[in-house]
């Protein structure tokens, strides 16, 4: 039996073991407070819900299977989730929503920090039970790796008190949304800790967490207390009217180099820790597409949602030619992966994966740290 070791401290050390999601039984979920705020007002998804068409599920699975094969051909072990029945309602004593979502983006649910895999709270009601798709793998890792720690953050109640009612209108407009996000007024309140794993970037001893629609300040404080040996930093990107996950906005490629979405630049006052430690933040290349695929939540900036295999190698979506060209100029070997037809199922190459093992140890990449910024 292949030895299992769970250990990953950052986004760029050599990847040796990863989870790749599946599109099986993926649903467009019904309306709910968290979802309504996050679906763009001009999206073709508004007012729709139900199981996605089988031909689109089959196509997405074909692409995900091919991606898994590409990784395996490079010596990377790939595990896959065990899909649950996503057509069943998500129901607790506090809420009921008529269907669930899917298991294409494990990055949203699972945060690997060292030998721990942490199940995030999630802030959509339809995603409350999404961790169950990954429980067979968690049980397997627990049995095979004596150092593996399987943790789960406190499940939130997700009552109406968790959401600002101002966001329930479908006619807010982009201008007001940008004003609200600049003021750090998001759909999520501070009623209880909320965070999605995809709002967290790992830099060895430092965790960088986006405060936005899916992660609130109480969630960031929970992470700070849960990882007492780490420095946890809160970031915001005011140019994003739908600040959902950090990995189409801020993408570390290797020690000292980060791509930043030029429409959502990290504010000047939040750049000090990078400047003081000789990190370069460069604008990402423009997306190759003007619009997202049909029935897709995500922005065109999934172009920069790449998977780094090691500090010199990166997976880029095949049609994102400008992003691939930029990676080449930055000295990276580009592995082209076709995935665009799977975007609608939960995101790009980073979203549809979750690290299990990367070589390397926990290092301090920001030794010149102003402690007042922690």
UniProtKB/TrEMBL annotation:
The question of whether Transferase is a record keyword is answered with yes
Which Enzyme Commission numbers does its entry carry? 2.1.4.1
Tell me the domain of life: Bacteria
- Region feature Disordered, mapped onto this chain: 79-98
Q: Which residues form the active site?
A: 196, 245, 351
Segment forming the signal sequence: none
Q: Which BP terms in the Gene Ontology apply to this protein?
A: creatine biosynthetic process
What are the UniProt keywords, alphabetically?
A: Transferase
What are the protein's GO molecular function terms?
A: glycine amidinotransferase activity
User: Which residue intervals are annotated with compositional bias (Basic and acidic residues) in the record?
Assistant: 79-88
Family the UniProt entry places it in: Belongs to the amidinotransferase family.
- Name of this chain's protein: Glycine amidinotransferase
